[in-house]
Structures are given as structure tokens and as C-alpha cells.
Amino acid sequence: MRLILLCLICITLPVLAQDSIVFGVHSNTAPLEWRNNGVDQGFNVELMNRIGQLTSTRIIVRRKSFQQLLNDVQNPNSDIDVIAVVSPINMDRQLAQSDPIYATHAKAYTLQGKALINNWADLAGKRVAIKKGAFVDVFLSDKLQKFDRVDVDLYETGFQLLIKNQVDVVIAESFVARRLQPLYPSVRSSSDPLIYGAFNFVANATKAKQMKQINDALRQLKLSGEYDLLVNKWFGTGREKVDLTFTEKRLFALAIVVAIISAAGLVYTGFISASLRRHAKALNAQLMQRKLIEAEISELSQQFQSVLDGIPNGVTIVNQDLQHLWSNDNNIHLLDSDGFYYIDNDAFVLRTAVLNVLSSQKSLIADMRYQQQFWQLQIHPIAQDQVVILLEESTEQHRLRQANEEASRLASLGELSAGIAHEINNPTGLIVHAVSLFSAAMKDLAPAASHYQKQNPFWLVAGLQPDIAIKELQYSCGAIEDGAKRISRIVNDLKRYAMPHIADEYTQVCLNDVVQVALRLTANQTKFHQVITHLSEQQPCITGDAQQLQQVVINLIQNACNACTEQQGIIEIETSIDGATAMLSIIDNGCGMNSATLKRITEPFFTTRRHEGGSGLGLSVCSKIIKEHQGEMQMLSSVGKGTRIRLTFALAKE
Fold first, then answer.
1. Which residues pair with 128 in a beta bridge?
2. Pairing with 443, which of 46, 260, 369, 486 sits 20 to 30 Å away (CA)?
3. Which CATH code fits 314-393?
4. Contact assessment for residue 162 and residue 108, using Cβ atoms and an 8 Å cutoff
5. Can you tell me the mean pLDDT for 157-178?
């Protein structure tokens, strides 16, 4: 029969009688035994000691290798009488054995985070460490194994292979694993018991006398209750045995530390008591002074609160969850309004802005727009999860800044435009006059060139056949004339931009008529797009110059056509009356403009269509004309969504 050594005990006992029992032990006896300062201790040490006392028998310990002990226990002539073994509970033994001493079991152990093992089937395909000769090995000897078995000499070797990922599972006896697990914290118990085993003393059949003595002593210890005391002492539920030497040293060191701390505590307590008595009167005086200071602070806080409440600007403190910790409630409703936008038309989301400021711990200062008003928003971090929000109306400052910038541009352009117009118009006039002469000359020279070519077939003009050369010259003359006229138009726009308006010549003009005239003049451009008009049934009449207003609407319609794709472009033109205000809106679904373009769109000579011949003066002239008519032009645009331009004028007085 195959026997398995579970716990081989380190025992050194005094001589109690002449008869003796030789107990064979293996050096790797953990976890059931411990050694303290070279003296063997543990459950089996005390148990065998009591058995020796009860039987008046001397216990002799001999240490041998694992294989030698297995051979000796089956050899009648060996010098070993008894060994301790664990075997599966369902296996019969041919050798003499004691009454069961203690029950144990084996289960699966894996690394933390690995799947649990519910039964033997879960081990299929895995690398499983089995201790050679252990009762698990005996149990599996006659069973089909669907896993890859890895034999090890010790359970600890299996744990080491598990840490190195050289095996997936270790099947280990529970008491051994309990002792090893604190040394390998990444290993965990992953199953319920897979095998149950019984711990017994085993001897050769020739040692029946010694086994009877052991069994009699065991039964006496169980009847007296001393056996249960030993079991609870060494294997009590939940108790983990430790190295006693190490524990005693730690406890001794801890006792010294506690004593030192206690002595220091007594000294310190006396010092503190004296200090408390010395400072008692001072603390009472400070308490009275603090009450006076708190009263002053409370009064100052109320005054400060009154000042903050009186500030017309909004001041609010919020946390990262947008809870209002404090607010003076001035204009704070704008922060949650859908109409509150960044000045470049990007949507404003309070939560996003607050979280960005908190994450970066950098202040946000931005110009905002709400309906016809402009605001300055400031968000400053004041803690890891709190910000202060300041909201100040800046409509007047914004308009003054725009007016100042435009006045500066007008002043510089006014000084420059007069000289430029004169200098450009003179050579432009010469070019137009000369090109007209060249065009007329080409018509007269064409017959002569044809006649001469018949007489001299090899005659070339500028390397071309005469008839082709004549056509190229005529085309070039036309291109030069068109270019010169374009220069003239740009100069006229520039002169108009810088020219002071003459309000005395204004008459009553209906915006509906202005739209209809502009649509007739731009019919060639709008024929590729869908144009929708909504003209007010009431006559939106204003005081102004019809020709200049037509020029504004024509320019805006042409810009809308350029922004839209053919066949899919939609242009809406609407006139309306709101109180004492006449409005004209032009909306397209074109490519739209970003915030940078929108800021500069009315600047002279700024254009996004330079490569298509744009001069950058169209909207500048339009802006000037609208201002001369005491009107306003508002632009809303988003890239990819289109543009909306609204012109507002005061209704003409009847």
C-alpha cells in the first residue's frame, strides 16, 4: 500500500521509561510543527509526549528522507516503529494504523484574479502541480487525468512555480497551504475541498504492540478531554500558527517600546498639566478678545454682503456640481439661457466651462452676446472644486471699440484713397483709350494680313499663323479692356467708401421695391439657386438713397450666391416691420464663416475670394452705406450651416 507523509514531526523528548517507540520524521514537517530556539514544538510533539507519559514509554526521534521513511515503514527489520501519514479517507490500509488523529483536506490554489475551480472537470487542459507521494497523488493514481500533471517535491515548490506562471493550479493540503499563503500573498484558495483525508500514525504489522499502546493512550486522552484541548490549541478554527521565536522577539520589543512610550507619556502629561495651568488665564483672556473680534467680523461681513448685493454685475460662487454656494443674483439667469453665446457664435455650456477651469486651474475670460447686448464673462478658480463667476455688461464698450476701430480705418483710408484714385484713374484711362485703338486697328489689319498671307504662305506673326495671331490679339485687347474697367470700378468703390454722404438728397424708399430691383439685376446669378421671398404686406419705407440701397442688396445677394452650391443653394429674402423699425433679412444655406472671418468681413480689402477676383470692398461699402442711412447690419454665421444677415432701419416718418 502507498503511504503518504503529511506532517513529519520534529520531536525531542526526555527519557521516561526503559521501553521505547522510535518515531521516524522528515525534515520538512511544516505546518504542524515549529522549532523555538532549537526546541521542537507543536501538536504532535505534545501528543507524543503525553502518549509516552501515559504508556511509560520512551519516545526516540530519528530523522530520515521521505523515501527512506516510506521504505522503513514496510520493512519489518527497520529501526523505525511509527510514522505519521495522511491518506484519502476512502482507501484501505494493510499496515497497522492508529485511531484517526485529525481530519484534513486538499483543494485548488491559483493566482489572484484567476477563475475559481468548482470541480475536477474545471482542471481540464490546465497545468496542475501535484506533490509526489502526497495523499492527492495516491487518490489520483487509478483515475483518468484530463489535466497536465506537474510533479513537485514540496507544496512550496508548487507555489513557486505558480508565481512564475509555470503551472496554473496547485492541489495542496489545507494545513500546509495555510502556513504558506502569508509568504505568497498573490496566491489564493480557489475551490472547496476536492479530497478529504485522515491523519494517522502508521506502523509495520510487526509493531502491533506499540500501535496498541498508542491507541490506548489516544483513547484515554480523548475521553479525558485533553485531546480536544490540544486540537483547539494548535488547529483551532481560524488560528494561524507563527514562528514562536519571531513572535516572542516582536512582543518583547513591543513591550520595551510601550514601556518607553508610557514613561515619556507620564513626563509629557506632567508638562502638559503645568502648561495648561499656566495658560488657563491667558486662554480666558483670549476667548473674550476672540468674541469681540467675531462680533466685528460679523458686522464687517454684513457690510461686505450689502456691498456685493449692490453691485450691478453678477457674482456667483459655484462648485464642480454647479451648486450655487453664493450669488448676488444679478444677471445670473443668463448663464443658463439658450440665447447666451460666445461672441463668435459658439454655444456656451456652463458645466463645460466650469470643469475646464477647474481641471486647468486657469481663469476663463470671454466676450459673450445675448440678443442685442454684449457681456464679459470671467470664471476664476478659487479652490480645487469651486469657481467664482463674474458677469459684466459691455455693450457700450463694445460699440465704442468698434466705432473707434472703424473710425481709425476710415481716417487712414480717407487719406490714402484720394491720391490712389487719382494715380490709378489716369493710367487706367490711357489703357482703355489705347486698347480701343488697338481693337479698331485689329479689325482694319485683318483683311491686309489675310491678303499678305496668300502672297507669302510662310509668313508668321509672333510665331503664329497670321489668322490665329489676329484672333489672339483681339482676345488680349478684350482682356486688357475688361481688366482696366475692373480697376476703374474698384477705384470708384474706394472713392465712394471714403466719400462723405449727403443726407439732404435722401428720399422715401420702400424696401420691397429695393429687393425686387436687386433680384432683377442679379437674375443671372440667382438662376442656379432657389430664391424664396417673404415681402411685408405693409410698405416698409425708410428715408435714403434707393440706388445705394439697391447696391447693398445686390452685393449681399451675390455673396449668398457665391457661398451656396449650385442646384442645392437656398436663398431667403424677407422684409418686415417691428414697431418703428423696418427690417430686411437675407439668409442662405451656404458654406458659412468662422469667427475669425466674421470679425474682419467688413474690413476694406479683406476677402476670402481673392483668387476669384474679389476686391474686399463690397461689404465695406455696404457697411458704410448702411451707417449713412442710420441703420445696423447684424451677421450670424456658422461654418457648414449658412449665414443670416439682418439690416434694420428706422421707418420713415409720414
1. 149, 169
2. 486
3. 3.30.450.20
4. no
5. 90
**Residue type (1 letter), 422:** H
**CB-based contact 150:140 (threshold 8 Å):** no
pTM of the prediction? 0.35
Pairing of strands 642-650, 632-638: antiparallel
Fold assignment, 1-241: D-Maltodextrin-Binding Protein; domain 2 (3.40.190)
Q: Give mean pLDDT, residues 255-273.
A: 86
40 CB-near residues (< 8 Å, 6+ apart): 9, 10, 11, 12, 33, 34, 61
3-state secondary structure at position 9: coil
313, containing H or E segment:
none
Average pLDDT of the chain, as a whole number:
79
Phi, psi of 469 (to 5 degrees): -60, -40
Q: Which residues of 46-62 are buried (b: 16+ CB within 10 A; e: fewer)?
A: bbbbbbbebbebbbbbe
Q: What gap in Å lies between CA 103 and CA 199, rounded to an integer? A: 6
Distance of CA 268 to the CA centre of its chain: 51
579: left (phi over 0), alpha (psi -120 to 50) or beta: left
Distances 194 to 31, 107, 187, 294 between C-alpha atoms, Å? 20, 5, 18, 72
User: Helix H segments across 334-394?
Assistant: 350-360
Contact 482, 419 (CB under 8 A): no
Please report the DSSP string for 534-565 in residue order.
E--SS--EEEE-HHHHHHHHHHHHHHHHHHSP
> How far is Cα 438 from Cα 436, in angstroms, rounded to an integer?
5
* Per-residue pLDDT tens over the stretch 325-351: 777 767 777 888 888 888 888 888 888
Q: Are 637 and 644 in contact (CB under 8 A)?
A: yes
Q: 263: number of CA atoms within 13 Å, CB side?
A: 5
Long-range contacts of 571-574 (CB under 8 A, 24+ apart): 571/526, 571/529, 571/530, 571/531, 571/532, 572/531, 572/532, 572/533, 572/534, 573/515, 573/519, 573/531, 573/532, 573/533, 573/534, 573/535, 574/533, 574/534, 574/535
pLDDT in tens, 384-422: 888 888 888 888 777 777 766 666 665 566 556 666 766
* Coil/strand/helix, residue 86: strand
* Record: fold of 503-650: Heat Shock Protein 90 (3.30.565)
Check whether the bond before 500 is cis (ω within 30° of 0): no
User: Which grid coordinates are listed for 298?
Assistant: 460679523
**Bridge partner list, 638:** 642
